[in-house]
Amino acid sequence: MTMPAALADVVSDFNEMQGQDKLQLLLEFANELPPLPSDLEEAAMEPVPECQSPLFLHVDAADRDRVRLYFSAPAEAPTTRGFAAILAAGLDELSADEILAVPDDFYSELGLGKLISPLRLRGMSAMLTRIKRRLRDA
């Protein structure tokens, strides 16, 4: 499976963990979700209804060589925030082509399948699908 170096680093970090330590790492990512820039309001962002908790995203593809990704999720939704933070850490500032080449099921490599319900994991898949759709439409 080929993925950008930053995303591969995140996957590697998860693969170094076992059991509940993976969940702890996910919570650490949740705490590191970058805040929205002051000129971007949640109301202007796209909702991702497939997520179990409210999540909004914005894809800025004005520069296709340096796509910016923004996410908003409440602090009370650490799993959703963690997924968003993983995508932000692994994909933000990459080119549109690099992001479009990311395997749709890359998240299965994180090893969270036994710890998090398939319904919750589907939220991460939905985020990536929407990001790719925005890049194709841009």
Question: What fold name stands as the CATH topology?
Answer: Sufe protein. Chain: A
Supply the number of helical segments. 5
In the predicted model, the low-confidence regions spanning at least 5 consecutive residues are none
Let me know the number of strands.
3
Mean pLDDT reading:
94
Return the structural class: mainly alpha
Calculate Rg over CA atoms. Answer: 14 Å
InterPro entries: Fe-S_metab-assoc_dom (IPR003808)
Domain Fe-S metabolism associated: 12-133
Family: Belongs to the SufE family.
Organism: Mycolicibacterium arabiense
Can you describe this structure?
Helix 1 (5-15) crosses helix 3 (78-91), helix 2 (20-31) packs across helix 3 (78-91) and helix 3 (78-91) packs parallel to helix 5. The protein has 5 helices and 3 strands, in the order ααβββααα. The protein has a single domain (5-34, 45-137), classed as Sufe protein. Chain: A. The protein is globular and about 40 Å long. With 138 residues, it is mainly alpha-helical.
